[in-house]
Amino acid sequence: MSKRTFGTHNNNRGGSGRRGSSVTVIQTNVQYSYLRTAKITFYVILAVVGIFAAVISTYYLPPLAAVPIGLAAGTLVGGLIAAIVAIWPVLRAIWWWLPEITLVLVVVGGWVYLQEQTNPLITGAAYASVIAGCGLVPVSRRYTLALLWCLIVRHRLRTCFATFLPTDRHGHLPFIGWAKPIPVGERVWVWLRPGLSLDQIESQLGRIAVACWAASVTVTKARSSNSAAIYLDIKRRDVLGGLVGSPLTEDLPTDVPAITRPVATVPAQLDLADVPDTDDTDPAERPAARKNGRPPAASGIPAKTATDNPDLDWI
Fold first, then answer.
1. How far apart (Å, rounded) are the C-alpha atoms in residues 93 and 26?
2. How many other CB atoms are found less than 10 A from the CB of residue 230?
3. Which of 26, 40, 254, 269 is least enclosed, having the fewest CB within 10 Å?
4. What is the distance between the alpha carbons of residues 287 and 241, in angstroms, rounded to a whole number?
């Protein structure tokens, strides 16, 4: 008999010849890991609580009667805690969808209650007014969209952790806590499991931003003394990049006449006593230099050299 994951549909071909879709709620390795942990937890608590309860019972009952009481107490407490450990994957899945489940229960419960107390027209008008107020009023519309993005981001982060971020050998995912709106987007509190570090998260911030449909993602420690608790800031807009009008301009008077100030003439040259004057006349405009009245020499006559000079042989 093949082992199937809890919550996974069968992939056998149906009558139309197409395979059924597969939706995994709890992975097989995670399910078996928690079952093994629950079994160990049951025996440990049975021994500890059973011995402790039996020792206390000996002060009031005979030893033979204290032993069954200790076994009963250990079995009760151990079974309760082991059951919580065994169904923890289911509880975690319920936690992932808790806001949506709560919203559906409130909407359906409110509709049923109003139907019992009033007529359908009043119920429809009340729900229509609430929906119109959330969609038409700018403040409520922005707040509603921010809350919807918080719900979406939690599921997108769970997809990131299950798809491309590393986990331990049992496939345990980090615990995704609350998400709240911030001016730039959303902030999500996450508790990391052993096997995943802050550096590994930082190396995948670009892929997380793509999965969350955001502009960028930053990660910081939630506590300086614990690296397991982190904040993931999903940024969708830049609040510091927009122009903000100053209200001070509205208080400025508008009936003030313009003031014209006289402009002094700037001197073109400076007359400094310790700086000599320089001739800045264009060379083309300067007068030609005067001649001294003597004609230049017609040709040069080389000097005579002695024919008996022995140095001439080396020249």
1. 8
2. 21
3. 254
4. 66
Q: Is residue 123 part of a domain?
A: no
Last residue of a domain, one of 74, 92, 110: 92
Residue 63: which domain range? 28-92
* Model pTM score: 0.60
CA dist 272 → 12, 227, 276, 279 (Å): 104, 73, 8, 15
Q: Which residue has the tokens 């073109």?
A: 268
Nearest-angstrom CA–CA distance, 161 and 27: 13
Q: What is the dihedral of CA 55, 59, 65, 67, to 10 degrees?
A: 0
Output the domain CATH number for residue 222. 3.30.980.40
pLDDT, one tens digit per residue, over 18-62 is: 444 444 556 677 778 888 889 999 999 999 999 999 899 888 888
| Residue 214 domain flag | yes
Question: Average pLDDT in the 274-278 region?
Answer: 67
Arithmetic mean of pLDDT, 70-80: 92
Is 174 a domain residue?
yes
Assigned domain for 110 exists: no
Identity of residue 261: R
Task: Supply angle C-alpha 168, 88, 10, rounded to 5.
Answer: 80
Residue 232 burial (CB < 10 Å; 0-12/13-18/19+)?
Answer: buried
